[in-house]
Design a protein that fits this description.
about 290 residues; alpha+beta; Pdz3 Domain; 13 strands
Length: about 290
């Protein structure tokens, strides 16, 4: 979604905004979020491994964006306030039907069919200058505006370069919901699987003699350094096992999509029944989720 080229353009747009300050102060007001009860990431109650992050910052010891989301999710979970609506952070422009050119950061590369954007007649090629009155310098700026809208029917006002008025997009209820399995913060969501289960392919899949169209995952690694991994190993899952069904249904999962499925459909304390193939024998393994 980004590139060196779009970074350069974003920086030039920022410099232009800076040169126009304070005349544009009013439209920049909502660039600031609601104040947090902490000033640094290390003060976040849900941030794990704080002692590690307090050390001198190195490449393998910096706090990433997904660590912030992990901390927010963990604290919400502890308070019993973690809901799916909380997971749809910083929606991509595709959620309203716009694909932005990653080499530009503001130019519309594509309008998705049957989307809020398509219904307005907006076309590819235009460059977005404002969304809901806020100046746009990058894709992330668009996400910021969308992030602060409710997941209920909402209006998104888009201004294109050279236009004298906004184009109003109307979203439907639940418009923020999307596949977040690509996000780094997905892995830390409860329940945490802590087992690496890549998709079985090719000759290895053929040797399992499964019906046509049925897939499998192989248990390649169980993270017994984590409480979740230890609980799974104690319950009887072994490295080398093949998972051929989940809750009685055949699968076509990757490791990532399996983790996402578990997190979207189960909660800590639930049991996930999976069908295991081990040494030619099939049996049900009741996976204790934490």
């Amino acid at each position: 979604y980004n590139s060196i080229g779009s970074l350069e353009k974003a920086m030039r747009r920022v410099l232009a905004l800076h040169a126009n300050y304070p005349r544009n102060k009013r439209e920049l007001f909502f660039k600031r979020g609601i104040p947090k009860p902490y000033k640094t990431a290390l003060e976040m109650p849900g941030l794990e491994n704080k002692n590690k992050y307090r050390q001198a910052t190195q490449r393998n010891n910096c706090i990433h964006c997904h660590n912030i989301h992990d901390a927010e999710n963990l604290q919400l979970s502890r308070l019993g306030k973690l809901s799916k609506d909380k997971l749809w952070r910083y929606p991509l422009p595709e959620n309203i039907g716009l694909t932005i050119d990653p080499k530009d950061g503001a130019r519309i590369a594509r309008v998705l069919p049957n989307s809020p954007a398509a219904r307005t007649g907006i076309r590819p090629g235009g460059s977005i200058t404002h969304v809901n009155g806020q100046p746009i310098v990058s894709i992330a700026d668009i996400q910021w505006v969308l992030h602060n809208l409710p997941n209920t029917p909402a209006q998104v006002n888009v201004r294109l370069a050279g236009a004298s008025r906004d184009i109003t997009l109307q979203t439907a209820a639940g418009w923020k919901q999307t596949d977040i399995s690509w996000r780094g913060s997905m892995w830390g969501l409860p329940p945490r699987v802590r087992v690496y289960t890549p998709e079985v392919k090719g000759a290895e899949l053929k040797r399992l003699n499964l019906p046509a169209g049925h897939g499998a995952m192989k248990v390649k690694w169980i993270n017994t350094g984590s409480p979740e991994g230890r609980a799974t190993a104690r319950a009887g899952l072994r490295e080398g096992d093949y998972i051929i069904a989940v809750n009685g249904r055949h699968i076509n999962h990757t490791n990532r999509s399996f983790n996402y499925f578990v997190k979207m459909n189960y909660k800590p304390g639930d049991t996930l029944p999976v069908t295991i193939l081990r040494g030619g024998r099939r049996f049900t393994f009741n996976w204790p989720l934490q």
